[in-house]
Write a structure and sequence with these properties.
Structural class: alpha/beta
Number of helices: 10
Radius of gyration: 20 Å
CATH class of the largest domain: Alpha Beta
Helix content: 25-40%
Number of strands: 17
């Protein structure tokens, strides 16, 4: 047996996640049985989706049960194994949770554990080549269906998914407009956006009107609320609204839906939601493309790292306060892999 600290969901949050909702427990974990392997978690991905996983509302995945370890996508290394496909020393990523160690048989909550190449650092495996990158990839290319010359507007463009969408949009030949705060402007321009709309310092609706004189072909939404409404007013005929997230509404006791949805009718536009797990059968293909772009320098990665499992609540708060730039990570042990 070995020590295994883990965060457990003890109460359903009402509003922002608090220390009475998620509680750090000091527990023990055993050695692997036949067909299992033990992972030492090195880095945890802190994602807006975690807030939804705490909610009892009907969704694409069952909520985390009260008293159980908090669900999270993590990277780690196999430290003991009785599984032929995952020998000791193998670097892996999967739904290992918000904890220091996890046992697996190759699946975590029904989702396959994936190997990480030696030259891909943890932060890239969890970011532009992991959950964030693949969410951006499938949302943009499958739901958004970009064509060269399309106007693509991306909300939360300085976040992990938004940053990847901006970069992939440029690779697809789109005219990219990012929505972000003024202090994130240079980061979003550095990712390849042609223009940046500051959602904190002015009228987003008027800025989009000025910058999107030919309308919006694709709106990639990570935020919901007023920004979604402003984009709907500018959507073109046949336009595509990609619903990835709604971080402005996650902590709201009474979430507010879009007021301008009737624009979809007149413009024969579509508004479609999707989730990362829908595409598990295509993960290997998407990973390979993202790895290739990363290795060539076409995709870059920004990370915001909080150290120590005891600081998980701080890392979660940074995501919902918008304090992070790029991928928010919680580093538990020394991360491994090549340079990013």
């Amino acid at each position: 047996m070995m020590r295994n600290r883990e965060w457990r969901l003890e109460r359903r949050p009402e509003g922002a996640v608090s220390s009475t909702d998620l509680v750090l427990h000091d527990s023990q974990i055993g050695m692997p049985d036949r067909g299992q392997f033990l992972v030492r978690v090195t880095t945890v991905s802190i994602d807006p989706a975690m807030r939804g996983w705490m909610s009892p509302l009907r969704s694409y995945i069952p909520p985390v049960a009260l008293g159980q370890p908090m669900r999270a996508i993590s990277a780690g290394v196999v430290i003991a194994s009785r599984h032929a496909e995952f020998p000791e020393g193998t670097r892996v990523t999967g739904l290992f949770g918000l904890r220091e160690h996890a046992l697996s048989d190759g699946l975590m909550e029904g989702v396959g554990v994936r190997r990480i190449p030696d030259d891909i650092p943890d932060e890239v495996a969890l970011g532009t080549c992991g959950l964030a990158g693949m969410t951006a990839y499938f949302g943009l290319f499958d739901v958004g269906r970009p064509a060269p010359g399309d106007t693509l507007v991306v909300s939360a463009a300085a976040g992990s998914v938004g940053s990847a969408v901006v970069q992939l949009g440029r690779l697809a030949g789109c005219h990219v407009i990012g929505v972000a705060s003024s202090r994130r402007r240079e980061a979003v321009l550095g990712d390849g956006a042609h223009e940046v709309v500051d959602y904190t310092g002015g009228d987003v609706d008027q800025r989009l009107k000025a910058l999107c004189r030919q309308g919006i072909d694709i709106y990639f939404d990570n935020v919901g609320g007023a920004v979604l409404d402003a984009a709907l007013k500018r959507i073109n005929t046949g336009g595509r609204v990609v619903l990835c997230g709604g971080i402005s509404q996650y902590n709201a006791r009474k979430p507010v839906g879009p007021a301008n949805y009737l624009a979809l009718i007149g413009q024969r536009a579509t508004m479609r939601g999707f989730v990362y797990f829908d595409y598990e059968s295509q993960f290997a293909m998407a990973e390979q493309r993202l790895w290739d772009w990363h290795r060539s320098g076409a995709l870059r990665q920004r990370v915001d790292i909080v150290d120590g499992i005891e600081h998980a609540l701080q890392a979660i708060a940074r995501v919902f306060e918008g304090s992070n730039t790029g991928k928010q990570l919680l580093r538990l042990h020394g991360a491994t892999g090549g340079e990013s």
